[in-house]
Design brief:
The chain is α+β, with helices and mostly antiparallel strands. Helix content is about 50%, strand content about 20%. It has helices at about 5-60, 70-75, 90-95, 145-150, and strands at about 80, 110-115, 120-130, 130-140. Strands 1-2-3-4 form a 4-stranded antiparallel β-sheet, with no helix packed on it. A hairpin with a 2-residue loop joins strand 3 and strand 4 (about 130-140). The chain is elongated, with a radius of gyration of 39 Å.
Length: about 150
């Protein structure tokens, strides 16, 4: 190879290297642009979430938006009256016949428990009205006490 050919090869190699470095810089620039775009999107999402929560809290405090309770009032719940409980063995359970007496853990005259969907709501006593059983509520559990019992 002649000196002229060597210089041409070096020139070509340097040009090729410069192009490769330019492409690498373009790749880095593209990565930088993508990372900036992602950071901006995350900041916008965080701002939107905070704004939505702040607006909701403000509207609840102002009382401008009222909850439509009519939607909730038609939801069915299960009422249960509990006279008492007893633990028995399967042997004793199988020996029960008509007329057997099951002893409960409560004394006679103690109030019944009124449960709504399994949560104690009130205590009451049995009454008979027009040949039908009913319950007179004697003590309603406060919402604060119900929450304490859940914990």
């Amino acid at each position: 190879m002649s000196d002229e050919e060597d210089l041409s090869a070096w020139g070509d190699a340097l040009a090729e290297q410069a192009e490769a470095e330019g492409a690498a810089e373009d790749d880095l620039s593209a990565w930088g642009d993508a990372l900036n775009e992602q950071a901006e999107a995350e900041a916008a999402t965080a701002t939107a979430e905070t704004t939505s929560f702040d607006e909701l809290a403000a509207s609840r405090e102002d009382g401008k938006e009222k909850v439509d309770l009519d939607v909730l009032l038609d939801i069915p719940v299960t009422l249960q009256l509990e006279i008492g409980r007893a633990k028995v063995s399967i042997r004793n359970l199988l020996s029960y016949t008509q007329g057997s007496v099951v002893e409960m853990d409560r004394l006679a005259g103690e109030p019944l428990d009124l449960l709504v969907n399994g949560t104690l709501i009130a205590h009451g006593e049995v009454v008979v009205i027009n040949d039908k059983f009913g319950v007179r509520l004697t003590d309603v559990i406060s919402p604060q006490d119900r929450i304490k019992k859940l914990k």
